[in-house]
Design goal:
7-stranded parallel sheet, 20% strand, Rossmann fold, 435 residues, 2 domains
Length: 435
């Protein structure tokens, strides 16, 4: 773990508050951990779990000597966290990350002390989900958690990663699952947590992460301008602007002698589904044709990558700083938990409606590729382009100082149009039903 003040401070706070909550009577005490994207939440969580196990065995005020863990994450983020922690604990072997298939499913199976069971949220939040279904052949997840806490008397700590994803339409399902598990402690992790009144909270402030040069010092949102370019559509115009910025940053890295190839992310309209709509397909075809015919960027020469639910091209090694791919076309598959520090420009196609920007939205372009700032200040910022006009863009209040917009300017040689305003009031006597 890199020695960063904010990380060390947050880890110790998490350990201390976890021990305090474990000492309380009852179940389901909540600890919220809020940290901005790019701060290293998974690394801090790994260090915290390891230190917690150590301090429980060493501290005289510890309410117990051992605990078991369950890590719940949405989509396939649990796999990413599992492999990260498996690597993290390879040398120390202080904790043992496992998945459901690794467990003992006999009548004696339970989550052992020091084990971290990684679970995909979508595999347990449905009533007929296989993992929670009672069968004669294997123990359900609820069997394992019950035996762990009641029969073995081992306190269970559930870590809920990207906790904000479990709200809205999933809130009732989330609550039902946690009610069935009844953990001693719930540690809820997110850049934008939604738990209203937790028992305890640990916050990593964005300013401290910026000061350690882990994330960019700001993000510039450049809403699309009204324009009249006969030879270009709005889609092509946006791609042209975003690609021009990517090339500008690439040249800046080159002048500094830094071997980093900045990546342009192009996101298709996101309607909450990974499946391709007619609008998605239309924009995808126009973008790929424009990139290929005008700029010579395509999947054949590896300068373009595609990451869609039914199509993945040139995605291996995409995260490496010197990877030759210049643009990635995606929908929402990579929007959560994907680490690619060289990603520098984001083009978001949305339906033309009001849209609120926050650091969570642009999280994929926040990381500094070498965890340090550069002499060329352009490389210390992220850039976002969108087809939503300036007056429809809203910014989350807490992100006002971090996200900024470029104001529009008038094109030269415009002819003013003057319209005379008139108001005519009809006499009341002339107003009739049919009139």
């Amino acid at each position: 773990m890199k020695v960063l003040k904010y990380q060390q401070k947050a880890v110790q706070e998490l350990v201390d508050k976890s021990i305090d909550l474990l000492s309380l009577a009852g179940q389901r005490h909540t600890l919220v951990f809020e940290a901005p994207t790019g701060a290293g939440k998974t690394i801090m969580a790994s260090e915290m779990l390891m230190r917690l196990c150590t301090e429980l065995t060493e501290r005289a005020d510890a309410p117990c000597s051992e605990v078991a863990f369950m890590w719940i994450a949405p989509n396939k983020l649990h796999e990413q966290s599992y492999f990260k922690m498996k690597t993290f604990f390879t040398e120390t072997r202080e904790l043992h990350p496992v998945v459901y298939d690794d467990m003992d499913h006999s009548a004696n199976g339970y989550i052992h002390p020091g084990e971290i069971l990684f679970v995909n949220w979508e595999s347990i939040n449905k009533d007929n989900a296989l993992m929670i279904r009672d069968t004669e052949q294997s123990a359900s997840l609820y069997d394992l958690t019950r035996r762990t806490q009641i029969e073995q008397e081992i306190p269970l700590i559930v870590i809920i990663d990207e906790e904000h994803m479990f709200a809205g339409k999933n809130a009732k399902k989330s609550e039902k699952v946690l009610q069935n598990i009844q953990p001693k402690l719930e540690i809820r992790i997110s850049a934008t947590p939604i738990t209203a009144h937790p028992d305890e909270k640990v916050t990593v402030h964005r300013q401290h992460v910026i000061e350690e040069q882990m994330i960019k010092e700001g993000v510039v949102i450049n809403p699309a301008l009204d324009f009249s370019t006969p030879e270009m559509s709005l889609t092509q115009h946006l791609v042209s602007l975003a690609l021009k910025k990517r090339n500008e940053l690439a040249e800046a890295y080159k002048r500094l002698g830094v071997n980093i190839n900045p990546l342009l992310l192009i996101q298709l309209p996101n309607d909450g589904s990974e499946s391709m709509s007619t609008e998605d397909t239309s924009i995808k075809d126009e973008v790929t044709l424009y990139l290929d015919t005008i700029h010579g960027i395509n999947t054949t020469n590896n300068r373009l990558a595609v990451w869609l639910s039914g199509e993945k091209v040139n995605v291996d090694g995409l995260e490496q700083n010197d990877n030759m791919t210049e643009a990635l076309l995606f929908k929402q598959a990579i929007a959560l938990g994907w680490d690619c520090p060289r990603a520098a420009v984001l083009l978001i196609f949305r339906k033309i409606e009001s849209f609120t920007f926050g650091a969570q939205t642009v999280g994929r372009i926040l990381r500094m590729p070498e965890q340090k700032f550069y002499q060329d200040d352009r490389l210390n910022k992220g850039y976002v382009y969108t087809n939503i006009s300036q007056n429809l863009v809203k910014i989350e209040p807490e992100d006002m100082d971090y996200l900024s917009t470029i104001h529009t300017i008038r094109r030269e040689n415009l002819c003013n149009v003057s319209l005379q305003s008139e108001y005519c009031e009809r006499p009341a006597i002339g107003r009739k039903r049919l009139g």
